[in-house]
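Journal club prep — side note

Before the paper discussion, L.F. wants everyone to see what a predicted structure for a comparable chain looks like in C-alpha cell form. Sequence:
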Amino acid sequence: MDGKAAPNGVATIEDRILRITGYYGYYPGYSSQKSASRSSVIQCKPGGNCPSRHRGMTRQLSPLSVAEDSAAPILELQNRSPSGICRHSRVRRQSRSEEGTQTHTESSSQEAEGQTRCQSCTSTFLKLIWRFLIILSVSSSWVGTTQFVKITYETFDCPFFMTWFSTNWNIMVFPIYYSGHLATAQEKQPPIRKFRECSRIFGEDGLTLKLFLKRTAPFSILWTLTNYLYLLALKKLTATDVSALFCCNKAFVFLLSWIVLKDRFMGARIVAAIMAITGIVMMAYADGFQGDSIIGVAYAVGSASTSALYKVLFKMFLGSANFGEAAHFVSTLGFFNLIFISVTPVILYFTKVEYWSPFSAVPWGYLCGVAGLWLAFNILVNVGVVLTYPILISIGTVLSVPGNAAVDLLKHKMIFSVVRLGATIIICIGFLLMLLPEEWDEITLRFINSLKEKKSEDHADDITDSSVHTRSRSRANGTVSIPLA
C-alpha cells in the first residue's frame, strides 16, 4: 500500500501513527527524513563539534514520544508564530513595555503633582509675605505720623494748621491712583473718562456742584475734626495713650451701626464696646480725673467718635466703593479743604490763636513728613481694603499701639503706670473682639463639633487596631477569640 516505505516497515508504521494522531508538521515522508536526521545526529561524537543546523534542535523525536505529545500539538501550534518565535515571549515583551510606559506615566504624573504643590506653596508663601508687608506698612505709617506730630510740637504748636496742610495733600490720591492704572491696566482710559467713571460714587449723574457741596461738606468737616482732635490729644497725652484711645472708634462704629443702620446685634461686640468704655474710664482715672489727662482723653475720645460717625455716614449715603471711587472721594475732600477751609487757619493766625513769627521759623520739613506719612496711611488703607482683607488693615491699626509704646519707652524714656497699661490692654482686646465675623459663634460650634468627630473616629480606630492586635496574638497562641452575638 505504501511503496515508499523502508524495508523494515518502521517508517510506514510511524507515518501512519503521525497521520492518525494529527501531529503538527506532518507530511508524507516525514519519518524517513527524521530518521536521516537522527542518523546524522548520532554520528556526532560526544566531544566533537556538531554542525550548526543541529544546534537549534531542542528535542529529538521518537515513536515513543509521539504518544506523550499527542495532546500538545494544538497548544504549541497556537503558541508558535510562522517565524518560529513563541507568542508567550512576544506577550511578555509587550507587557514589559506596557509596564515601563505605565511606570513612566506614573513618574511623570508624580513629578507634575510635585511641581503643582511647589507652586501652590510658593504662591501661599508670597501671599503671606504680601499681607505681612501691608500690615507692617499700615502700622509703621501710623506710628510715624504720630511720632512726627510729637516732634513737630517741640518747635511749632499749631495743630489746626498742620491738619489743614496735611489734608491738602489728599488731592494727590486720585492722580496716584490714575498713575497706577496707566502702569497696570491693559485697556488704558484717558484721565477725564476715568474721572467721570469714578465720580459715580456721588450718583448716576456724576459730580455736580450741588452734590459737591451737599455730600462733600459734611464729610470734609468730620475729616478735619477727627484729625484736629487727634492732634490736640497728642499735646496732652503720650502717643501710646492717644493711639490706644483712638482704637475705640471700632466700638463706636458698631454702636452707631446698630442704632442707625439696624445692623445685626452681636453679644461679643457689646462686650467689646463695654471693654472700650472701661479702658477710657481707666485711662482718665490714671491721673485722678484732673489736669491735662482728662482733657487729652476727651480729645482722643472725640476724635474716635467723629471718625466712627464719618464711617457710618459714608456707609449710609455712599455705600461701598472700589479703590478708584474711594481715591476720587478723598481727592475731592482735599480739594474742598483747599477752597473752603483755607480761611480758618488765616483767621486763627490773625487772632493770635495759632500764630508764628517769623514765617521762616515754620518747620516745613516736619510738616511735609507728617503730611506725607498721613497720605501714605490713607492710600494704604484704601489700597489694602481692595487688595487684601479689611481685617488686616484693622490689625495694622491696632499694632500701632505697641509700636508707639516701644518708641515712647526707648526714645522718650516713658514709664507706664499699671492703670494706663491695663487700660491699653483692655482697649486692644476689645478692638480685637470687634474683628470677629458675624458668624463667629456658628464657625466656633462647627469647629468644636469637627474636633469631637475627629476624636471619636481616632478612638474607634484605636479600638479596632487593639482588637486586631488581640486577635492576631490569640491566634499566635493557638486560640481563636469568638465574639459574642
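L.F.'s comment for the group: Residues 171 and 332 are 7 Å apart (CA to CA). Keep this in mind when we get to the figures.
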